[in-house]
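It is worth pausing here to work through a concrete case rather than discussing structure prediction in the abstract. The textbook approach is simple: state the sequence, then state the predicted structure, then interpret. We follow exactly that order.
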Amino acid sequence: MKRKKIISIIAVLFIAAIVLLTFFSKTIDNMLLPQVKTCDAILGDMEGENIHSISFLVPKSAVIFRGDETVVYVVNTVDDETRVFEQAVTIEDSDEIYYLITGDYGVNTTAKVVYSTSKPLSDNERVFIAEEV
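Step two, the predicted structure:
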């Protein structure tokens, strides 16, 4: 009798643990992803200078330098998953806060650019947006 009671308690605890893990699975998954903070890429120029190609202002913290390559990470939703994509950019000008960049189609007026991350990022990686500015 005592053995059956112990087994039934263990079974109930096991089922309760499975139900809780299933209920919180998305939350747990989001906690394990890199958490990023994003902001808009601002269409514009610096102090009235007119760059002939389309240029965007992004915070200096959004730009990553790798040797002779300069990139930003842009957030995009693919198949209901939030992912970051690496975009090569060229720095045209800067001030104390922003870089004026030009790049390919990935950076546009609706782009959310990553300016802070909890972990190093890689191209096409799933992320969790912690804050948008």
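Step three, interpretation. The first helix runs from residue 2 to 23. The domain at 34-132 is CATH 2.40.420.20 (conserved putative lor/sdh protein from methanococcus maripaludis s2 fold).
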